[in-house]
Amino acid sequence: MSLSVIIITKNEEANLQACLESVRFADQWVVVDNASTDNTRAIASDFGAEVTQTQAWPGFGPQKNLALSLARHDWVFSIDADERVTPELALEIQQAMQNRAADAFEIPRLTQFCGQWIHHCGWTPDRVLRLFRRGQAGFSDDLVHERVILKSGAVVRLNSRLLHYSYPTPAHYWRKLEQYSLAWAQQAHARGRPSSMPRAVISGLMAFLKSYVFRLGILDGSMGFAVCAMQAQAAFGKYFTLYCLNQQNAPKKT
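and the corresponding structure tokens:
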């Protein structure tokens, strides 16, 4: 069984080399880059990846579907530039591809926040479907929070963790929060989804209670509190942004 790894990037020179090294066991590496201004494309090319550049940004789902269309091998593994495959997971992936009874595999992901691994807050276990037979799955067309949609077949869970170095500093979190909140709100607005200021406030409060109390974020200490507070801000932010978009485009009263 042969494997294609697909990655979408934009200004990922700090992450891409380590990401590619962690999937060196693959047979093909596809990097679809969105107008990077750093050394991302050079790093990918020097590693041996097949690099495609786009200028317009269509959203995460469409961009990943473009990368998927360039994959040639029996199996596809989708990874983000800020993720790493451990040696244990690499071995498990290679073994999984020999499983004729499964068409896709979910992988538990462990995320690091400001240097600390987060084991609660709703972040763990974070099972993501990333390994699948080519032709058996594709990505949703969502602008953000895209997901793999399996056409048919069985999904099996792997045991080894995918490491996620998503938020090395609070600044990284705030940048992603702004990007994701706007993309989510634009998508929800286009679909006619309503929002209000009370909905935004309640969503923020409920997000904190859910992650800090019910999902035991308190056990992650001070960083757990920070994660839960930021998740509350994220929940408030996306509904508040949607509320503003709806207000801006509402019929003017005479």
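(Above: one complete record from the training split.) Helices lie at 16-22, 40-47, 60-69, 87-96, 170-190, 197-214, 221-248.
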